[in-house]
Each structure stands twice: as structure tokens, then as C-alpha cells.
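Residues determine shape. We examine one folded chain.
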Amino acid sequence: MRKIIILSVLFCALIVTAQAQTEKPKPILFFGGGMGLPMGPDLFKDFWKSGIGIGGGVGFEVNPNIELQAAIYYNNFPTDEDAFLDYIADMIGEDPTGLSLDGGSTRIIEAMANAKYKLGGSNSSSSVKPYVLGGAGFANLSFSDVTASYEGETETVTFESTTKLALNIGAGADFMVGPKIGIFVEGKYSMVFTEGDATNYVPIRAGMTFKLGSE
């Protein structure tokens, strides 16, 4: 978490510096949420379900086509208990009747610095403004405790959290509903460089944007 806090401060400093060097600052607030699809490695893809993600951040238009963003998102992927029980049944060769599992959800907090390239520029007369974006930052991965219950006995396993380098790339579109208010829809491919195989997932999000700068 310390790395995420430090990175967030650096993001804010970057945006303030860019704002000071621009004659017509155009800061943009955005927030939203949606779902995330676990993609890899196989363990993550096979034993965790699609989950929810919420968050937001601030962007700054350095020119009509380019916006720098600092964003923080929270993602939660619940465990697939049925998939785990089926795997255990295959391992032991019989149905583990009476065994139940609780917990084990994967939580990922992203702190990202992104560059958003607006196709056609923000001054385009069209109310639909497609874009591509990408960036880097850090992601903190943590897991809720797993409790297994069987024939009146319970056992709880705890896990340590880890913070690793993360990258993302994606595309989306802004739909302007007013001079300074918009709706965005975007999809990204996110990669966290965990030990061994990287952890990959696809967040699909929608939300609101609010332009605070003067025209």
C-alpha cells in the first residue's frame, strides 16, 4: 500500500505541473465501475469468477488530443466454490460431500498513470469521441481468508498481500451529454507482474466525466 500512496502523490504532482504550464487548464474528474473478467494464469481464470470494479481519478488535457490521467480502481473477484470442489473431487477420486469453502476472493487495487489519446480531439463537433489509452503503475493484490468446513471441523488459511508493477491498454468512447458532462464506456487489458505467471484480467467499465477547466 505504501507504493500506491507514493505513486498517487507523484501523479498529483505531475498533473499540477502540467496545469501550471498550460494557458487554459482543463482538468477532468471521472468515476465509474463495471465488471472484470479473470484471464490468466489458468489458476486465476479457472477458480475465480468475474467480479466488480469501482474507482475513478483525475485527468488533464495537455492538448485537444491527449489527456494525462491518474486513476485508482478497486477490483474484487469472488472464488468459484463449485470449481474448487470439482477439482478436489478429481484429486481424491470421490465426491467431497459435506465440504464447504468460504472466502478467498481476490482483491486488486490499481494506482495507474495513463495517457488517453482522443481520436479526432476534444474539440470535435461529434458528441461521440472514441479514444485509446494505456499506462503503467502499481497494483496491490490481496486475498480474503479461506475457511474450509467439513464434518463439524473448520480450518482457516490466511494469505499475504503483494504489490507489483502493472500495465494496462484499452479503448473506449466518451458520449458528451452536455458542454462539460459526459458518459464513458471502456474496456482494458490489465497485467500485474506477479511472481511466476503474470495476473491478467479485462475490466469493462462505464461512468461519468466532469470537465472543470475553463473553455
